Amino acid sequence: MAGGEPALFAEYIPPSVRGRLEELGINSVDTTGWVRIVSSYPAILMTHPGATRAPWVRDETIQRLTGPSTSRVLRQLITSDAPLGVRELALACSVSPGTVAKLLPTLTREGIITRTPRGGFSQSIAGNLFTDGRRTTASSPAIGTPSPCLTPGARSMP
Question: Rounded to whole angstroms, how far apart are CA atoms 5 and 38?
């Protein structure tokens, strides 16, 4: 090739793309350390492995504390005295364990709940949840309307 060898420079090049670039004879370099430079004149073969996956981690936690599932979980945590695990909390609020599992890291990060030594979760904002000298409940104006997960035997939100 008259002007040099073709090359791709990127933040991260996945394995499937690196393989295809090699098949096409295209050099590649990414910021995670992957290097593959091949030249026939002058004779060069330079390779170096980099990261095995993308340098950024996809955050799968729930970022916004809105919606009926989040409300149900928050209400249950506020009114529960005992620490609850993911499955117990999901069952009590009729939401999926996956939803609870994605929500709990956000609530922990924001200081709303605390992880117990045995792996359960309990609310840590009880001191801030008072209305007229009483503990705030799901039916008080500070939280909203009663949630079915607070009503024994209820299975779904109206």
Answer: 8
CB-based burial of residue 80 (10 Å sphere; 0-12 exposed, 13-18 middle, 19+ buried)? middle
pLDDT (tens digit, 9 = 90+) per residue, 72-114? 888 888 787 777 888 988 999 999 998 888 888 888 777 777 7
For the entire predicted model, the pTM comes to: 0.44
- Six token digits for residue 147: 């949630």
Structural domain total, the chain: 2
Q: Is there a single domain that holds both residue 11 and residue 43? A: yes
Where residue 140 sits, what CATH number does that domain have? 1.10.10.10
* Residue among 51, 58, 61, 57 at smallest CA distance from 30: 51
Structure tokens at 26: 């295209």
Q: Is 68 exposed, middle or buried (0-12, 13-18, 19+ CB in 10 A)?
A: middle
Domain limits for position 133: 68-150
Q: Give which of 70, 74, 53 is closest to 124, Cα–Cα.
A: 74
Residues 76 and 146 both lie in one domain? yes
- CA–CA dist 34, 28 (Å, integer): 8
Residue 75 shares a structural domain with residue 103: yes
